[in-house]
Amino acid sequence: MRANPITPTIDFDRDGIQHGFLRLPYSRNDSAWGAVMIPITQFKSGEGSTALLTGGNHGDEYEGPTALLNFAARDRIDDIRGRIIIVPAMNYPAFQAGTRVSPIDSLNLNRIFPGRPNGSVTEVIADYFSHTLVPMADYVLDIHSGGKTLDFLPFAASHILDDKDQQQRCEAAASAFGAPYRLQMLEIDATGLYDTQVEAYGKVFVTTELGGGGTTSPESIRIAKRGVNNFLIHAGILDGTLQEPERDTICLDMPDFRCYLFCEHSGLVEPCVALGDPVREGEPMARIHSIERTAVPAAEYLAPRDGVVIARHVPSRVQIGDCLFVIGEIM
Ligand SMILES: [Zn+2]
What we know:
- The protein has a 15-stranded mixed beta sheet that branches. Strands 16-15-13-18 form a four-stranded antiparallel beta sheet, with no helix packed on it.
- The protein is 21% helix and 30% strand.
- It starts with 6 loop residues before the first strand and ends with a strand.
- The mean pLDDT is 97.
- The protein has two domains: 7-253, Zn peptidases (Aminopeptidase), CATH 3.40.630.10; 257-330, CATH 2.40.50.100.
- The protein is globular, with a radius of gyration of 20 Å.
- With 331 residues, it is α+β, with helices and mostly antiparallel strands.
- The structure holds zinc ion.
- Residues 57-58, 61, 144, 147 line the site of zinc ion.
């Protein structure tokens, strides 16, 4: 038997609305028998599919937590058939600290799946999702945005999968989310991702990037809230009709690793293109200025392929190795 130390304070089998915690024992200097208390909400009404909705996988991304805290505060259940499990901030210690990775063990939750039941705090959280929450779910939505060092066009994404039927079901759910853009995503490194773990179970999985810069906007929050509702309606769990985006969704692809432009200098970024701009291979995307001395020629970064700018580095100071831009191709 697995011995993950997390105890839920809610009963996953009980009908109704429950608000509680995933209690993860965390003994430390200021609390000998203390715990990390990860907020969780469940809506359950009779038989039906289960949706697992998460935000705060990275602690400095706020569209997910904001939309999910809003949804979790609803007091209606008569329009729900099945079960909705909501964890607004998966990596809760990182969310509390406003940082991408956990301040407790410096781990990035989205790089350590499937996790370990007897590991550090972040590994235990990953293990609990891998072996308890995800197996209960049919539909899984994980809401990301760029955090403090990236800014994205708002998109819902799915991956290319070996199981083409599953891939098609993921694409349909990403499409139903109703973001202004939809992306077939190519990951820099899929090892240890929550995405890969959920997809390996054969679940319908949608991820997003809805903005970034360590903040939100009325528009990005509107997209996230609409997406949560649409995802649940698409899953057949929430009554209602899909709310269409204001204009037709633009479908993007990432056909190869030339979609990524990494920085080989440190300095100050002078952008030549903005999010959403079309670019052609060889066109300047940014100039990187030395901040050590004046009159050093700026390093020019050229577009590695044709496409549309779907992500950019923030803030304006850049370090060697940073991701400067991501380019998508309109399908
Ligand atoms: Zn993220």
